[in-house]
Design a protein that fits this description.
By secondary structure, the protein is α/β, with parallel strands linked by helices. It has helices spanning 7-23, 43-58, 65-73, 80-95, 125-128, and strands at 62-63, 100-105, 108-113, 118-124, 138-141. It folds into two domains: 7-57, no CATH class; 61-141, 2-Layer Sandwich (YaeB-like fold). A five-stranded mixed β-sheet has the order 1-4-3-2-5.
């Protein structure tokens, strides 16, 4: 099995396990075909894994159960273009070192934990009047 951390290693491990479970045999290695080395101790592979994980994370955004309930109860439906703008705002906040951000998008306010890339709560225009947002260290208008 391939050892180490990261998405690629998990994928390879699951692929090898699938071959073994489907065939009952460990896949043979053709000695005539050059084999890639996955020496996870090397600096290059560690950097590649970090870069890959960061690129994947840059395109994702999670919603807490609380945020999902708030979005549903307030009839807030986010379009794909709005999601893209939110993710861009999260990425910008992350580059500035923000930990918890207020993201203002059109008539919607979102509180986002930047490190975990998770929307904590959401409010619509009606709930924004005379509201105070606490426990944030940055704001992004997208």
């Amino acid at each position: 099995m391939v050892t180490g951390n990261g998405y690629l290693n998990n994928y390879l491990n699951s692929s090898i396990k699938n071959v073994i479970s489907n065939t009952g045999k460990v896949p043979a290695i053709d000695k005539n075909v050059p084999q890639a080395s996955l020496n996870t101790g090397s600096k290059v592979n560690a950097e590649f894994g970090d870069i890959l994980n960061n690129k994947i994370a840059e395109k994702t955004l999670l919603f807490s159960k609380h945020a999902e309930l708030r979005l549903q109860s307030r009839n807030i439906n986010l379009s794909s273009s709005q999601m893209k703008r939110i993710i861009e705002g999260v990425n910008k906040a992350g580059t500035k070192g923000v930990k918890d951000s207020l993201i203002l998008l059109d008539d919607i306010a979102l509180i986002v934990n930047i490190k975990n890339r998770t929307v904590i709560t959401a409010a619509s225009k009606n709930e924004l009047k005379e509201n105070v947002f606490t426990n944030i260290d940055g704001a992004v208008i997208v």
